[in-house]
Amino acid sequence: MKNNRRNFIKFAGLAAASLCIAPKAMASSGHAAPVKKHADGLNAKHWAMVVDTRKLNSEEAIAPLAAACHAIHNVSEIDTKQNIKWLWASPYEECFPEQQNPYMDDSVKERMFPMLCNHCEQPPCVRVCPTKATYQRPDGIVAMDYHRCIGCRYCMAACPYGSRSFNYSEPRKYLDLTKLNTEFPTRMRGVVEKCNFCVERLSVGKLPACVEASNGALTFGDLTDPESDVRKVLRENYTIRRKPSAGTEPSVYYII
Amino acid sequence: MLERALKGSPRYYAWIGFLMLVIAAGAGAWIYQLMEGLTITGMSRDVSWGFYIAQFTYLVGVAASGVMIVLPYYFHHYKPNKHMVIFGEFMAIGACVMCMLFIAVDVGQPQRMFNVMLHPTPNSILFWDMTVLIGYLTLNLLCGWVCLEHDRMRLPHPKWIKPFIIISIVWAFSIHTVTAFLYQGLPGRHYWLTAILAARFLASAFCSGPAILLLVLKVTEKVTSFQMPRNAVRTLTKIIAYAMVVNMFFLALEIFTAFYSNIPGHKHSIVYLFAGVHGHHELVPFMWTFVVMAVVSLTLLIPPRFRDNQKLLPWALAILVVATWIDKGLGLLIGGMNPTPFETITPYWPTGLELLISAMVYAIGALIVTVLFKIATSVKQDLEQSQALPCGCSTEDHCDCSSEEEAPAADEAPAQEAEAAA
Ligand code: SF4
Ligand code: SF4
Predict the structure, then answer these.
(1) Model confidence at A237: pLDDT above 70
(2) Is there a contact between B100 and B133 (Cβ–Cβ < 8 Å)?
(3) In which region does residue B77 sit, left (phi positive, over 0), alpha (psi from -120 to 50) or beta (all else)?
């Protein structure tokens, strides 16, 4: 009898508690919300990019790619050291500081190399972020939630490739508001940003903007699929990655 | 107990007023920063951490160092520290608050700071850093306040506080270790990527922190009737000297590793700091000043003849504080950040506004420490603990000099009494 009563009270209490929690839990769980995927969105197990630096080797060749990327993502151009860059050109010794030798072929030494976020498989920027504002998607892309970011810039200190930029001031101040891409947000002041492998384009079936602008010098595809374009170029060419010693396993490969 | 902070001499009020002015000026600059963003600082795309985070790092050491008084008393029953313990704890409170403020002024979206707690991310050291700092602050507030409150009521310290004190001692080591982990786990930042960083942090904390505390207490002795027991001072000075030796030894280890192995990444930052690279020599004069001052401070602290000379001591300590500040509050961060991931150098210097905001944080810390020390000394005065005797000893000392040195002490005594009365 006593036992029964205790059980009943327990049950009632639990029921009351779950009634209080349940609606909230349902409302807040993002997983329950049905996500309508675009019919011809591109999917991969692990996205990767191969850069053919034999074709893409000068400031002039890289500039249109950077311009396409920056225009489509409303990246502000700031004339100071507080600049924002998603894709940019650098000489060999900045791109591969640990892989130089003094007697390198001049044609390689004098090339410019496109640099961007490597979407590392083991990204230190994700590891250090205290708010999960920087996170890794199942398809390997290292993405950012700008609304979550507190602007601690820990990820900038952690990235061994200098791939991240911080909005020191209001980014819209430096944008031509008549030329904004209204399909993509601008950022707010005080958050970090970087290349996102054009996730917003992949989801509607388009390739990244730089890949599209590169006339075949950039190859983009699924690293896990042996039949994919990237695997094909990787098979046929000798490639290197930036700073292998950092152990981050970059997903951007460079054909030298 | 707080009301005790309200009664003071005109000099006390002048000091509080001065701090308030600095705080007001800094607050103005901070409001400007909130309106404009961190663009008003000297930081850049390459140098994304600057003066604020450097000061945070230095002050975590100061917060941790209070333990060098608390630990001997509770773990080794070292009696002379008994009446000093409270000052170590109160100093830690001030330093913790400053640390948190330095983080708060450094983040780009301060209103989102709570995201760190709302979305706990155990893989981020920053999450742990915040946790240990808040924990340490709470522990010190609790232990300091409860003990002082019981002192004031002339009651023995309650038994239940002891475990918290023991935890706070262990915790002190953790706060500085975690802060070191914040740096030392980053690939691509060669100057920080070293297993000895946490040990270096602790060594430098345990010399610079107690040195600052001793200096502050020396000032406290001047303006109140409080007097440190001589043995406690001697022991603390020894700890400072040893910690500084260890600190310099660790630096030598780093230099050996870098240069004997001849690995470019390891050498790069050290060469940049002490010799300059790619035409950038910004830090060279500072780093050599650090070395010279470190040597001078050690010369003044190691031989007992100099170390026990109370006239010389404040100088030795001040030199040591400046040296360690250059090393850790300037060199550590700039040395790790300015050499960019592209192996180029991007110079960084704090702007005037950045310095003003930092001054605000320091002034807030000074204000907290002043008020807390005022309360503590006034309670000690009521209880007649650690009070200055005419000969300059403390009531806690086994003083036998009063009979012999009547004459010289006599003219100091009225002055001290006058100050105590004020
Ligand atoms: S390149 Fe840098 S920002 Fe990009 S994923 Fe790797 S560590 Fe993160
Ligand atoms: S700046 Fe933003 S994205 Fe980077 S670590 Fe901090 S919260 Fe994460």
Answers:
(1) yes
(2) yes
(3) left
| Contact of B231 with B80, CB cutoff 8 Å | yes
Could you tell me which of B250, B330, B316 has the C-alpha nearest to residue B286?
Answer: B330
How much is the mean pLDDT over chain B?
A: 90
Structure tokens at A120: 């590392």
A254 SS3 class: strand
Work out the burial of residue A76: count CB atoms within 10 Å of its CB; fewer than 13 is exposed, 13-18 middle, 19 or more buried: buried
> Which residue in chain B is spatially nearest to A78 when comparing CA positions?
B45
pLDDT digits (tens, 9 = 90+) for A128-154: 999 999 999 999 999 999 999 999 999
DSSP B227: -
Structure tokens at A172: 């819209």
Neighboring chain B residues of A159 at a CB cutoff of 8 Å = 188, 341
DSSP-H helix ranges across B154-303: 161-184, 197-223, 230-261, 264-274, 284-301
- ipTM confidence: 0.87
Q: Which is nearest to B305 in space by CA: B234, B214, B249? A: B234
Give me the pLDDT at residue A16, please: 57
In the beta sheet, which residues pair with residue A87? A116
Are the beta carbons of A207 and A217 closer than 8 angstroms?
no
Nearest residue in A to B106, CA atom: A152
State the pLDDT confidence band at A8, using cuts at 50, 70 and 90.
Answer: low
